[in-house]
Amino acid sequence: MATSELALAAEPDLVLMPGDTQYEEAELDDYRQSFHPSWVRLKELIRPVPGNHEYDTDDAAGYFAYFGDAAGDPFRGYYAFDQGDWLIIGVNSVCEEVGGCEPGDDQFEWLSKTLDGSDTTCQLAFWHNPRWSNGNYDDDDSVAAMYELLHEYGVELLLPGDSHNYQRFEPLDPDRQVGEEGVRQFVVGAAGKNLREAEPGRNLAAANFEEMGVLALELRSGDYSWEFLSTGDAFTDTGTADCH
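^ that's the sequence the OP posted. Answer follows.
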């Protein structure tokens, strides 16, 4: 309830959820009994993507039933839309459930065409598995090819979840090297079940595993700003950057 209160107070136009939206097996009754009482006030603004726990129920049936059209085609779980001057891309990083995440696979080719066909100024992608992580999960190579595609097309932001903490990385290329044209990744996994430690590491600019919270983004024409909103006062993280 505390993190949904933070999100509500921020008066958002959109709420992105990068997977594991309900523990443990994400059955429809679980959403009704646990997720719904807390987040129903924002449900019309929520755009989710699935994580591994959604697929603990066959075909993520509970997830797709609860979120309906907002979750996209239940045989794909990925979609894209424009939000002002930004392209927002929801990717299904549970790769084995959608035929893979490599060149030649349906989702990869869709992502390539979506990026190639966009005329928006800035782009943001969100999915579940972090490409980079110093948290309770390591870097995830299963999404490496899609990350390379984001970098190729100059995508500004990547928002994964999975690791139960908050991590902000410097803009990174596919070799995890800092660069002006890199993708800035925020691991946003501090709003739910429990927190787990995040370790200092290469190119990690900020991390929090002591307080629950949500990430507030202001997406403007040509630039953006961020602020981590926490349930306490021990941690904050803010900044502004231009689009490529």
